[in-house]
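Deliverable D4.2, example record:
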Amino acid sequence: MFKVYPLVESNLPFLISTAIILVTLTAFVITVFATRWTTKPMLIVILLVSSMAAYFMNIYNVVIDDSMIRNMMETNIDEATDLFSLKQVLYFIFLGLIPAYLVYRIPVAYATFKIEQIKKVKYLLLLAVIMGATVFIFFKQYSSFVREHKPLRYTTNPTYWIYSVGYYINATLTAGPVTIKPLGRDAKVVKDKNALPKVVILVVGEAARADHFSFNGYKRETTPQLMKEDILNFSNVYSCGTSTAVSVPCMFSYYKKSDFSYKKGRDTENVLDILEHTNDISILWRENNSDSKAVALRVPFQYYKNNFYNKACIEGECRDIGMLGDLNSYIKKQDGKDVLIVLHQMGSHGPAYYKRYTKAFEKFTPVCKTNQLEACTQEEISNAYDNTILYTDDFLAKTIQVLKGFDKTHQAGMVYMSDHGQSLGEKGIYLHGLPYFMAPQAQIHIPAFIWMNEHFKSTLDINKIDTSKRYTHDNLFHTLLGLFSVQTEVYDPALDIFNSRKD
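Output generated by the structure prediction step:
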């Protein structure tokens, strides 16, 4: 509020009025649901949850909306542990636990049910009058406030997280039974029978931002190995969302960002299903993040967050490089079929960036060695983050080396695209997950590129591909279909990045 309305004498009456509005609104919401059986439990829960909401809002400058709640519900224990800190415990104790205990101890005398309802109606009317009178007195300021500073409502605590929980429940738990809508059942691979089989590795990056990759003009050498490869870099690509829970299902979905919703993504087959329908393409998803966000439910799936599959798990941290194990033998076993392998990275997942790479990749120093980013300087945070990009560079270069082993037998290619970007403390904003309309470029401008061997390149007219054109996650669905020469009624060549093909 003070950033928008500076604490000067002329703004003081309006600032006081906003405090009155927030207090009365919170009291109104709680009173509606207050009874002799619910008042104390409700207040205790609100205090405990609000203390944690206050911590993440204050420390990371995030918004607790339905998307953030979905992220929280879908996270795993490792990611949750990365966020744990002593300051979080202090917030919970002093803003949550102690106030909640006081509420528990305070004796409350209740009247009969009838008298209580009469009192409740009177109290609600009083609160409504106070809110109405306050808005009326400062109507000119509030009309401007609502119109020009709408994002401020996302920062109210507890009212906005309560609203977001309701929205999340409505979108998730009451969405009805899951009935998967079929898509692209007419799909078939159309290509020359003498053409070499295709193998494509799609790497889904995590929290990588475009402006920290060297080939996008970044001043540091964060991608030295990739710079030596003949990659086709797309410098103007934007994500579908600002969180993994939204972006990953969206990028594989038939629906564009403007039409996508959690329910549509959950209830409709995606591009992996369509490729599977052809019966000519082997698909494998390897997961080193939390999960596939329901994208890979109907295709072969391997979980690499443990050492059963991942042989690069050291001291509780499973490295992305472990996902490359056995890929050679897996591809060879497909007996000439086309192959799509999806590798979902842990990548640059924060806030514990220092955990995402090994000591050999700690090139940029000093680094932030804690998950409490506010305790580190901007330089320390950027250094740690850039080291994660340097590690990703090595991982991607090694992925290309795997594909080069099939240079004589396959049309081989690697597609890299991040799920979303990341804020590193610019303007006090950390991590990701802000509502899309108010998210900074750092959270939505993502790196994306492709590497192909000569066999694959020969099928495309590279010179006609505009790498500086604005693309989004909307293009991935149709680009994958095009790369595998899949013919189906749901394919839109206008959205295929590589639709310039040689006859």
